[in-house]
Every structure is written in C-alpha cells, then in structure tokens.
Design a protein that fits this description.
Blueprint: H1 16-69, E1 77-81, E2 84-89, E3 94-98, E4 120-124, E5 138-140, E6 157-164, E7 167-170, E8 187-191, E9 198-203, E10 208-214, E11 230-245, E12 252-262, E13 269-279
Antiparallel strand pairs: 1-2, 2-9, 3-4, 3-8, 4-7, 5-6, 5-8, 6-7, 9-10, 10-11, 11-12, 12-13
C-alpha cells in the first residue's frame, strides 16, 4: 500500500527580528535626516525673524526721517528724561510767499509787521490749501527757534481765519513783535491744526514701545511726555540712542539715531543706524 505525501504550503514573511531591525534602521536614518533638515529649517526661521526685525527698524527710522525732513526749521527739540528720549518737532504741510512792502505792486495787501490790527495779506503765487476757522491751520514766519521768533512760544505763529482768493485773513496778527522779524525772502510755512507739534518717545535702556504723539498743541518749554492729543505705536521691544548736533542759529543740523529692536522670544537684537539731515534755513 502506498501513502500519498501531502504537499505542505511554504509560508513567507518577516520575522520579528527582521521587523525590529527595519524599524531601528529606519529610525537611525530618520534621525540623521532630521538633523540636517532641522539645521536648515532653523537657519531659515532665524533669517526670517532677523529680516522682520530689520524691516520694522528700517520702517520706523524712515518714517521718522521723512517727517523730520518736512519739519519747521529750528523746531527740533531732543530731550532725555528718566531713560526715555523725546524727539519733538513741528511738521509743515506747505508754504508760500506773502506780499510785502518791497514788492512794488499797488493795490495789494501786505503782511503787516507794524500794525497788529491789520490781519490780512495776499499770497504771491499758488495759494496753499488751508483749513480755516476755529480749527484753522497756522502761518509761521521766519522761525529761529528763539524768542520772539519761536513757533512754540507763538511770537511768529498766527492761525488762519478765512481765505478768499489769494487773500488770507488771520485770527490775530502777532508779527509786529516786538521786535518785528519779517522773513528776508517773504516766506511763510503752513502747520496743520490737526497735527501741530509731534513727539516721538523711545526708551534708551530697557526695551519697550516707541510711540508717536501729535495734535496736543504747542508747549513751551518742552513737556516730557506731552499731554493730550493722539498716540500711535511705532515699534515694539525697542531701544534707541539719539544725538542731535547743531550749533546756535546754524542752517543745518544732523540727528543721529541708532534703533535697536529685540526679538522677545529669542532675545536676538537688530540694530539700525541713520543720520538724518535737518534743514534749519528759515
């Protein structure tokens, strides 16, 4: 009698040891790859954060620089109190030329530097856009930053009451002085009522907010910080070092500003330096 041999099906697959070896090798390879990738990712994130800090610092400095270049001559004041530097100035929006007695044209109205009761004058050339009435813009003539030709003190500052054609009427005429100081070139600057003086405040030692305040009026002597008006945040986690160089009655000055912005998470600091030219020719 013959017995038939049963065919046995051969089983195939991974053993437990092979599976563990695969897992271990995969883990080692993944760790090696992660090390290289992490370095690149960290470098990219650091570069992005550094770029954001640099952009924030550059934006704040460009904003300050642009406004100071449009500031009324001899209106820049820099004071440091309790580890905060205050940069104050009076921004201008426009300017023009007033009619004076030397123009040689009959029938016009001159800006009177003798009689305070005469409040009207003609503008020669294009008439700047002026807000009028109780919220009228201000006309400032020959600002030297010293009494009586000091816009903060008001000796050469008059508010616009109305405008008719090329004739501007003032609420009052402070220009007769004493002493009267007309502009050698018969020029005037316009300061918006809505803005008036502006102050930037920046901490010098401990990182904090850089703020801008405007619309609080004209305060003499300088008040630190000024009260009232509107405020806005210019930069976060920042410090600054400021120096203003100007000889008395010089036509040009230089404002040195070093702005440091700190990453609150990593502690990394980006520092941006700028020299701002200040035109003080009245």
């Amino acid at each position: 009698m013959k017995f038939k041999r049963k065919n046995r099906t051969r089983q195939s697959g991974f053993t437990m040891i092979e599976a563990i070896m695969v897992i271990v090798i995969t883990g080692i390879l993944s760790s090696m790859v992660a090390v290289f990738i992490k370095s690149s990712v960290d470098s990219y994130i650091d570069a992005e954060q550094r770029a954001e800090l640099t952009e924030a610092a550059d934006l704040a400095l460009r904003r300050l620089s642009r406004e100071i270049r449009l500031a009324l001559p001899n209106s820049l004041r820099v004071t440091t109190v309790a580890n905060v530097t205050y940069i104050e100035f009076i921004p201008t929006s426009d300017g023009g030329r007033y009619r004076d007695t030397g123009d040689g044209s009959a029938g016009g109205t001159v800006l009177d530097f003798v009689t305070a009761a005469n409040k009207s004058f003609d503008v020669l050339g294009p008439v700047p856009t002026l807000a009028t009435g109780g919220s009228g813009d201000f006309i400032i003539v020959y600002n030297l930053g010293q009494v009586p030709a000091d816009a903060y003190g008001g000796g050469n500052r008059a508010q616009v009451s109305s405008v008719a054609g090329s004739t501007v009427t003032l609420a009052s005429n402070p220009f007769p002085g004493p002493p009267a100081l007309p502009s050698p070139n018969s020029r005037f600057q316009v300061v918006p009522f809505a803005t008036r003086a502006v102050t930037y405040a920046c901490p010098t030692t401990t990182a904090g907010l850089i703020t801008k305040r405007w619309g609080y009026g004209f305060i003499n002597p300088q008040q630190t910080p000024p009260a009232g008006g509107s405020t806005a945040t210019v930069a976060l986690n920042a410090t600054c070092q400021v120096d203003y160089t100007q000889a008395a009655l010089q036509r040009n000055g230089i404002l040195y500003v070093r702005l440091n912005i700190i990453n609150a998470t990593s502690g990394e600091t980006v520092s941006v330096f700028q020299q701002i030219h200040v035109d003080n020719a009245p």
